[in-house]
Design brief:
By secondary structure, the chain is mainly alpha-helical. Helices cover 83% and strands 0% of the residues.
Amino acid sequence: MARFYLIGFTVLLFFDTIAQCSFKLTAIHAEPLAMSVDWLIRVFTNPWIYISIAGYVLTFFTWMTLLKKAPVGPAFAASHFEVVTVMIASIWLFHEPITLYKLIGTILIVSGILFLALAESQLAKQNADNHQ
């Protein structure tokens, strides 16, 4: 089961990170932002928008598959690890800086996910011990 979660959340993060970065690439290529037909044409003639949409569709199906088996609380927290993966991808793709606040936020997100996973593991162990 642990391998299912590891592979599933890795795939989820991959698709979600692709979708987020593709949206940013679409926004960059569609500049300047304007509520006009020309802007809509720039958006929808850019291949990144379709990669982004595909990323979100694949993220949705991966998430639904994970939710069949994963506990909702830790799964929801782990799904937010995408904030970290998008930040890392943005450093590489968009040359965005790592700031102290981003680093602190990353540490807090990862810590929160780990604490929820440990709590869920401990709860599952207690339930198993109570049923014996």
